[in-house]
């Protein structure tokens, strides 16, 4: 049977700031993110299986990405944890419930890499993460491909 790629789109709203950046993105600002998740595999060939003809049930992919990415990052503020902003993070965390203090600069490029690691670890056997495309704006996005990261 043929190897097939399937894609599901997700969207979420997220704010971030780029700590130490030399431009306006050093300020807290938000984006309407669109995440395209493409997985690859061989469709189920067992006619008795309820997943017959599917690489992955889109509901399963929705649960993985929804639970591990969208639910975590939607309406959150993501900041890089540094030696200089510990007090800021503590203050924000005391006020806001969805603060994500991360060890990396929360650029589109770094976020798509983190998302790839997270999603790939959760996929069912026989299904591989092929690529991710994360739109930060309508005209700007970062892409991650498994073939570039093997």
TrEMBL record:
Keyword Ion transport set for record: no
UniProt catalytic activity: 7,8-dihydroneopterin 3'-triphosphate + H2O = 6-carboxy-5,6,7,8-tetrahydropterin + triphosphate + acetaldehyde + 2 H(+)
Membrane-spanning ranges: none
Gene3D superfamilies on file: 6-pyruvoyl tetrahydropterin synthase/QueD
Listed cofactors: Zn(2+)
EC category name: lyase
Signal sequence segment: none
Pathway: Purine metabolism; 7-cyano-7-deazaguanine biosynthesis
Sorted UniProt keywords: Lyase, Metal-binding, Zinc
EC numbers for this chain: 4.1.2.50
UniProt similarity note: Belongs to the PTPS family. QueD subfamily.
Name under which the protein is recorded: 6-carboxy-5,6,7,8-tetrahydropterin synthase
Organism of derivation: Alistipes inops
């Amino acid at each position: 049977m043929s190897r097939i790629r399937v894609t599901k789109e997700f969207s979420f709203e997220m704010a971030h700031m780029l700590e130490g950046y030399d431009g306006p993105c050093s300020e807290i600002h938000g984006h309407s993110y669109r995440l395209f998740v493409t997985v690859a595999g061989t469709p189920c060939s067992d006619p008795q299986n309820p997943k017959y003809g599917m690489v992955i049930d889109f509901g399963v992919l929705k649960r993985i990405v929804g639970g591990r990415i969208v639910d975590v990052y939607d309406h959150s503020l993501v900041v890089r944890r540094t030696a200089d902003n510990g007090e800021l993070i503590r203050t924000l965390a005391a006020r806001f419930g969805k603060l994500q203090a991360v060890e990396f600069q929360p650029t589109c490029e770094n976020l798509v890499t983190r998302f790839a690691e997270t999603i790939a670890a959760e996929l069912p056997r026989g299904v591989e993460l092929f690529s991710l495309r994360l739109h930060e704006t309508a005209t700007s996005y970062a892409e991650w491909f498994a073939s570039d990261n093997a």
